[in-house]
Structures are given as C-alpha cells and as structure tokens.
Design brief:
three-stranded antiparallel sheet
C-alpha cells in the first residue's frame, strides 16, 4: 500500500476500493499518508478486510455504511441533468471456501445491502475468491462449491459483469485465476466507458492485479484547495 498511495498516477482516481488492506494493530486503522488528497473509509472493527480512499474533490457527495468487516457500501450522489440520483458501490471481500467453516461468506450480507436500495443503481466489486466459467471463461474447468450463491444473486438483481470474461486477476501458485470481479446494474452498465486491468504502472507487487473502472457520470466536486 505504501508505493501504491505514493504513486502520482493513483492520485487522479476518484475512488480507490481495496480488499485486505494492511492494518495498524495499535491504531485500528490502515496506512493513510495522503490525507490531503483522499478521505479514508475504514471499519475499525477487528478483522476488517475492505476500505475506501475517496478523493477530497468528492466531499459532500457521498455517505457510507459499514455492514460487516468484509463489506461496506459507498453511497454516491451523481447528477443527471437537473436530477440527482444515487449509485451504491459495494466493496466485498468474500473468504475462501475452505476458510469459512460454518460461515456462509459475504454473499448473504451483500444481498441485504442490495435489497436496502433495490430500485437504485449499484456497483458490486471486490475479491470474491470464487471460480466459475461465467467470469473465468469457458476454458476454465474450476467451479467453487458456493459460486452458485453469487450466480443466484447476480440473476436476482440483474447485475451485468463489467470486467471482460476471462480477465486473469491473480496468480495463484503459478496459475492465473479470475476471482476479482466488477458487476453493475443494467442501467448503470450503459455509463461504463471501460473496465479492465489497470496495467503495470499501477501494479505495486500485490498478488492481485489492480482493476480500473471508468464511468461517464457527473458529480458535484468540491473546489480545489491551494497549498
């Protein structure tokens, strides 16, 4: 996270969603050296595995909800002509099947978060730790036991996969896999200019590759501060 947040290429982004951020056990917070550029949304509860960095230019346009240490939602207000509408961005960490034990994972909590604002527009993104040909491509023979839970949720809320099918987002024991995903509601998907791997310039030695999503929406931005 240190080289990522020090990278000037990262500063141009409005919203950075991170899964499994480093945690400072003495302050119940994560690394945040860019307070003059980004506001941090971080759940101080034990075991937090998702967080947001949000550009100060968006101040006054958003609120947030901490659902669980593995799920939080950013509620963003955007302008559509004279009309203001909401986009809810859900940052998800879904634990690996074998690490869950009796836990159903994060998908049931995500369903509740979507249902709370069902008629609005939604983006669902994060590390799902689930393998399935729907997002990995027909060449993939792997399918996680609980992938059906995510497939059912995608169908129920009419979510489109915004990341191109077959995009390899992680190197797992030398084998590339697709477990980091981005979904959007049907209307919102029409505003997507691009969604895909960010490229090597934003890769700072994580075992997951960074993904960028560019939306054609308008927000009311705060005036730029002079240093």
């Amino acid at each position: 996270m240190a080289p990522l947040l020090a990278d000037e290429n990262v500063w141009k982004y409005d919203i950075i969603a991170i899964q499994e951020p480093w945690r400072n056990k003495f302050q119940a917070a994560t690394y945040h050296p860019v307070k003059d550029r980004f506001d941090l949304i971080y759940n101080t509860k034990e075991g937090t595995r998702v967080c947001y960095f949000i550009s100060y230019l968006l101040r006054g346009t958003w609120s947030y909800s901490h659902h669980t240490p593995d799920l939080e939602t950013l509620h963003l207000k955007v302008q559509d002509g004279e009309t203001e509408r909401a986009i809810h961005i859900h940052n998800v960490y879904n634990p690996i099947d074998r690490a869950r034990g009796d836990s159903p994972g994060t998908i049931p909590d995500l369903r509740e978060a979507l249902e709370a604002n069902r008629t609005d527009e939604h983006i669902v993104l994060g590390d799902f730790n689930l393998h399935h040909p729907m997002w990995a491509g027909i060449q993939s023979r792997r399918s996680s036991d609980t992938a059906g839970d995510l497939l059912e949720l995608v169908a129920d809320y009419q979510l489109d996969l915004l990341l191109p099918v077959g995009t390899k987002t992680r190197q797992e024991r030398g084998e590339p896999s697709t477990i980091d995903l981005v979904f959007g509601t049907r209307l919102l998907s029409e505003s997507v200019i691009s969604c895909g791997l960010a490229g090597s310039e934003l890769d700072h030695d994580s075992d997951h590759l960074p993904i960028t999503t560019l939306l054609n929406v308008t927000t009311n931005t705060a005036p730029e501060r002079k240093r």
